[in-house]
């Protein structure tokens, strides 16, 4: 699908259009001295393409956080650990939410490390989530410097490696780099050379004009025009823009940056006793009001929860159907969960994919009220996979099993609850193949490791009978499974018949 992004006007008042699909495949480099209009250009591109493609903005000055109010971008404060930033980046690709990584307030060394961790999380996302993303990096010379500076070598290598991956290898992973820099001479050549589209703004230094002219295929005399460009005017070239150098004027934007260019303001009238005001003896030291401490950064779990939350820009209209009570609504949700798990491939699908399928099924069934959050869905999924019904669900030992499972990670809760339900029912011990399917893998070795892990945690005890059958005893529940062959085949209905 071809989408033309309106960037402004070209010669003879013609619209200057940018082919978004071509841009995703060929990347973009924006160059211009301070005050040439680079940030205005990036804002125009982001605003016009927001309805069509997911966006991630690396913002060293906090200028693009205002996109959140108009276009729903999630602002990620970079004042957190590198591991947290990598986790958030992975969730961003999984849930396809546009974000702004706010690096304002960090030292340059910290900005480089944070950007490297964030870009690394985008780059290392699972193949199932390689959707197209427009990755905009403002002041790219900070993150991909051409030479060593005042920052540590480790931070520079991490940042430069992440930027190189973005521009050189990111296309196959759906990452389309859009980088902007004040000076081409300060930007690493292997990063700049990967862009096929260029927007060159006002430039004064000879070395920068020479590199810009070389990228655009101009001679030295033609490069002189870069000095005469006005603010907001750029020379465009590339398959997504124009096959020949084309002067364009960037159009207006809907949002504004928090910082503005300095404006002249008239000076106040000088007082007659200016000298006495300046040099008068100070009777007592002036007590300055302390500046309020900046608010702490949002917890990582809150940002992940917001990223995973389904988008609902408009309030849902009042339903024409009669309202139902909470018990009936929970019954409808449980029914949807059982339908979801009836799919034989559900055990091998990721939790994110199952959650999206769950939301669609809830809308089809017209389940009223706000849908369960991702964390709540994971808990319901683990309990539903256990399949505890009838007398077992009402047994106090089962409630104890639910409480014990809360100490485990989300991916292990379902396996433990199935083992607990099997022990309460006195059914044969599940085989390694059954445990592997419940965990979502085909590896029997991993299934045996799970049983060993539960035993090391003190949740169960493994013993073998004389015939080689495996028995799992759960001391906290006061029950154990019947002997079962660990090398036996997978049985999806194992334990349910005994429970009934």
UniProtKB/TrEMBL annotation:
Q: Where is this region: Disordered?
A: 479-500
Keyword Disulfide bond on entry: no
Q: In the UniProt record, does the keyword Repressor occur? A: no
Q: Which GO terms describe its molecular function?
A: ATP binding
* UniProt keyword terms in alphabetical order: ATP-binding, Nucleotide-binding
Could you tell me which InterPro entries the record lists for this protein?
A: ATPase_Atu1862_pred, HerA-like, HerA_central, P-loop_NTPase
Residues in Helicase HerA central domain copies: 13-71
What is the superkingdom listed in this entry's lineage?
Bacteria
**What's the name of the protein?**
ATP-binding protein
From the broadest rank down, the organism's phylogenetic lineage runs: Bacteria, Pseudomonadati, Pseudomonadota, Alphaproteobacteria, Hyphomicrobiales
């Amino acid at each position: 699908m071809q989408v033309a992004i309106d960037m402004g006007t070209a010669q003879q008042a013609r619209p200057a259009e940018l082919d978004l699909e071509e841009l995703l495949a060929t990347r973009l480099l924006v160059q211009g001295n301070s005050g040439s209009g680079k940030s205005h250009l990036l804002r125009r591109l982001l605003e016009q393409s927001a309805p069509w493609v997911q966006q991630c903005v690396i913002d060293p000055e906090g200028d693009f956080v205002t996109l959140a109010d108009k276009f729903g971008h999630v602002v990620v404060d970079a004042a957190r650990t590198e591991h947290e930033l990598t986790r958030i980046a992975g969730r961003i690709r999984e849930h396809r939410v546009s974000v702004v990584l706010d690096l304002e307030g960090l030292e340059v060394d910290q900005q480089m490390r944070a950007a490297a961790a964030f870009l690394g999380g985008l780059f290392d996302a699972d193949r199932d989530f390689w959707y197209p993303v427009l990755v905009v990096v403002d002041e790219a010379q900070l993150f991909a410097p051409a030479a060593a500076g005042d920052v540590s070598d480790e931070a520079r290598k991490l940042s430069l490696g992440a930027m190189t991956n973005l521009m050189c290898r990111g296309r196959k992973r759906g990452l389309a780099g859009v980088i902007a820099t004040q000076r081409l001479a300060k930007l690493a050549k292997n990063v700049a050379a990967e862009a096929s589209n260029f927007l060159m703004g006002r430039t004064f230094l000879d070395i920068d004009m020479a590199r810009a002219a070389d990228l655009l295929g101009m001679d030295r005399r033609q490069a002189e025009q870069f000095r005469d460009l006005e603010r907001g005017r750029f020379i465009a070239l590339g398959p997504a823009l124009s096959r020949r150098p084309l002067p364009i004027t960037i159009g207006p934007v809907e949002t504004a940056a928090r910082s503005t260019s300095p404006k002249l303001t008239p000076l106040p009238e000088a007082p007659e006793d200016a000298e006495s005001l300046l040099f008068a003896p100070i009777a007592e030291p002036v007590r300055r009001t302390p500046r309020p401490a900046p608010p702490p950064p949002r917890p990582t779990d809150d940002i992940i929860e917001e990223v995973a939350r389904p988008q609902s820009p408009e309030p849902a209209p009042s339903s024409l159907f009669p309202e139902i009570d909470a018990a009936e609504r929970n019954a409808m949700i449980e029914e949807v969960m059982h339908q979801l798990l009836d799919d034989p491939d559900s055990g091998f699908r990721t939790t994110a994919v199952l959650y999206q399928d769950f939301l669609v099924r809830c809308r089809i069934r017209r389940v009223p009220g706000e849908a369960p959050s991702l964390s709540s869905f994971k808990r319901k999924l683990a309990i539903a996979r256990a399949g505890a019904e009838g007398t077992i669900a009402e047994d106090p030992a089962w409630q104890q099993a639910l409480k014990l499972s809360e100490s485990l990670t989300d991916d292990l809760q379902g396996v433990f609850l199935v083992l607990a339900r099997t022990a309460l029912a006195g059914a044969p011990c599940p085989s390694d193949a059954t445990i592997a399917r419940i965990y979502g893998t085909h590896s029997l070795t991993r299934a045996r490791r799970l049983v060993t892990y539960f035993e090391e945690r003190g949740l169960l005890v493994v013993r073998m009978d004389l015939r080689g059958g495996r028995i799992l005893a759960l001391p906290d529940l006061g029950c154990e499974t019947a002997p079962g062959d660990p090398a036996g085949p997978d049985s999806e209905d194992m334990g349910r018949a005994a429970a009934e």
